[in-house]
């Protein structure tokens, strides 16, 4: 009999196909587990598969008295209460670095699309306004990348890949992270100093209590009226209300967002604005990145059911 | 009295401001010069400022009996009949390399926006379909850049900058040009071989008789169903009808275009398609690229009126 794995978040079926070959999947489709399955069924569950951003605290863990492993599909694990898991001897696994290139690429896509106004440009051509020579104030020339300073917040695997890509665009690159890294970019000792210096701020920091809403009205003001913000990390890092205000009153020039405070919802105040590019959390959404993340999930689940340590366990400090 | 310069193409006024400080500008606003100015006025014209893509043949040159210089705003000069100019002792100048970074960046923007489906993604968020969990077939995961082979057609200053950027995205890079260059990318001896090998074809070749419609149905078929084409050079390089057909019947996956056969017109058959990203010839359209191009124009015009050779003359073989 195949080992049982409960699917705790909502995932497209296609992303689960490889797991279904090896395990018996109990799919909640993102609904509360206790509404979908009997307490008897939940009592037999030893492993959960979840999205790292989905909240999973002590109360939820206690729905599964035999739970021994929480496996996140992707790099993040910010939704998991790690202390509660440790207290219950529940191992937590993820897919470190598996999607780094793909996420760095969406960061670049959003930066380029926002600074070069590609949504406005495409609409200008398709509407016939270009052919009619209608003026388009949004299409005024902007600073290009060689004259921009790009600040990267967070210098993990994704931050490094973003920085390397930006350097190839002839941009000056600086960064802030808790510790200085051996990388060829200017280090700033605070997010404030980085925001003062740069004109594009790329958020690539791991989400958590200490990064909650650190990008606030003050940081956005420091970024300034020619500034852009790109977030591919987690919505919680930005004070979303402050961002809406900064975009509305042109405190900053624009933004590119792949993540939001409450996914899959992007607030109406945000979606109504023209000076930003929005993506539905597709950073890791490439063929090879899905395969790499699935490889990590399979390795974690297989090891767990074999009574071994998770090969891709979350490293806690 | 300021020297007179006739503005032969249609340019936004803001782009002409620096020239107006130094010269007396006779602006045709893109209309036929003889309809806008008297033959007396045209008879006194010694220098034209034009866009390189605007057709300017022997007949047009003969409207200006005293014409001594044709200065192109930008890198291209494909609209100018160089033989006719040489026969009349008319010097031809341009702005070599001044917009290379800016154009290379729009090539990357179009490639990323097309392969990562950023127009569809933005619409999926803004429409509320993401929040409503509506399926979106266009948002199926695509190959990411590290598993793509990017073929660059043309290895001038723009082609080199495109190749360097693509390499930073962890893509394999190959190229075809008339001659082999000292660059760290795989050389292909024909456009056919390059199209067989790559999944993204970046067109960065100089336009001219020998490159007219070289990207035809055969090349597009070689590129294949996962393939994308990006054109930031000139519309004339692609057989636009063949491209529409290839996009419509999914011979290729998508395209990103900054240039068209008959600008500022993009054919309806093209603008109706979802699997491409369109820009209104904004490759060189950044603040610093405009300044660099204007510097070249000013240097060319100033030298000409001082009786000197153009510092940025078109080099003819």
From TrEMBL, chains A, B:
It holds the Pfam family 2-Hacid_dh_C. Keywords: NAD, Oxidoreductase. Residues 5-314 form the D-isomer specific 2-hydroxyacid dehydrogenase catalytic domain. Residues 108-283 form the D-isomer specific 2-hydroxyacid dehydrogenase NAD-binding domain. Belongs to the D-isomer specific 2-hydroxyacid dehydrogenase family. This is 2-hydroxyacid dehydrogenase. It comes from Bradyrhizobium iriomotense.
